[in-house]
Amino acid sequence: MDIAVIGTGNIGSELARALAVADHDVILANSRGPESLHELAADLQARAATVDDAVAQADVVVLSIPFAAIPGLGQTLRRAPASTIIVEMSNYYPLAGVIEGVDDAASTSTWLSRQIGRPVLKAWNTIFSRSLSLKGRAPGQSDRVALPVAGDDPEDKKVVMQLVEDTGFEAVDAGTLADSWRMQPGSPVYCTDLDATALRAALARADRTRMPHDRDAQIRAAYNPENGGVGIDMVNGVQIYRDITQ
Ligand SMILES: NC(=O)c1ccc[n+]([C@@H]2O[C@H](COP(=O)([O-])OP(=O)(O)OC[C@H]3O[C@@H](n4cnc5c(N)ncnc54)[C@H](OP(=O)(O)O)[C@@H]3O)[C@@H](O)[C@H]2O)c1
User: Fold this and answer.
1) 25 bridge partner residues
2) Ligand 1 within 6 A of CB of 8
3) For residue 227, is pLDDT > 80?
4) Which of 63, 85, 149, 186 is most deeply buried (CB count within 10 A of its CB)?
């Protein structure tokens, strides 16, 4: 399957690696163009392309770019064939800049889907890049981390759930795109590296009224300005995030 990973930063590069290891044909794109991606592309035996070409060539497009940048790709995404599956893995943090209308939507992904004029699915947004790179396991292993997948089209969701499995994580159906508020920052499933049983229970007990408080508390508790570009202490972050959403 041809999978375009748009955005190859902290987490996009790890996701692209996991997909390439699973023998998918990965196409990489970022905002600076394919010249800036030759090294990573060679390392992953992937192709580097412009965003337009990557979207046009892919069966599945994974958007691994900042939330606020996604609406700007609307024109390109609308040109993709109707069969192209679009997955987004972003997280909206008002602390990084309030965007009008987002909080009124059923979920942040619902808002994004409206902005770009295409259906999207949500996956891989609930795991730190560090966990994505270190905690992938083959099916059947006891310490497998589970990840929620949300979306409206059952067939497309099956495809994306299989891709999540291919990257080493147990895929759990988290419902429709409107339901995906349960997997947004501040939820007990968010960056807490749970197994499938605990993840299902955490999705069920997500409390929308409490999530903004817990989201901001998590950032305050785990933020470490010395931790490179990410700022979040991902070594202790999983435990910190679990404790806050207990
Ligand atoms: N980091 C994590 O642990 C983590 C976990 C879960 C979800 N996420 C989500 O994943 C997304 C990426 O996070 P990140 O930490 O990997 O960010 P990042 O390190 O800042 O990387 C962002 C990537 O997006 C690209 N990009 C930005 N605007 C673009 C545009 N208009 N067109 C094409 N490419 C564009 C950048 O390309 P250039 O470098 O060329 O500008 C870069 O490759 C975010 O939505 C974030 O919320 C992150």
Assistant:
1) 2
2) yes
3) no
4) 149
Domain count, the chain: 1
Of all atoms in ligand 1, which is nearest to the CA of residue 88? 45
Tokens 């901001």, residue? 216
CB 97 within 8 Å of CB 84: no
CB-ligand 1 contact for 109 (6 Å cutoff):
no
Best residue among 8, 65, 86 to mutate for probing ligand 1's pocket (most ligand atoms within 8 Å of CB) is 65
Distance CA(130)–CA(104), nearest Å, equals 32
Q: In ligand 1, which atom is closest to the CA atom of 30?
A: 34
Rounded average pLDDT over 11-21: 98
* Coil, helix or strand at residue 245: coil
At residue 106 the predicted structure's pLDDT band, cuts being 50, 70 and 90, is very high
> Per-residue pLDDT tens for 131-188?
999 999 999 898 999 999 999 999 999 999 999 999 999 999 999 999 999 999 999 9
67 lines ligand 1 (CB under 6 A): yes
The length of the chain, given as a count of residues = 246
Q: Tell me the C-alpha to C-alpha distance, in Å, between residue 108 and each of 34, 66, 75, 98, 206.
A: 29, 13, 19, 12, 15
Please give the residue range of the domain that contains residue 76: 66-244
C-alpha 63 – ligand 1 centre gap (Å)? 8
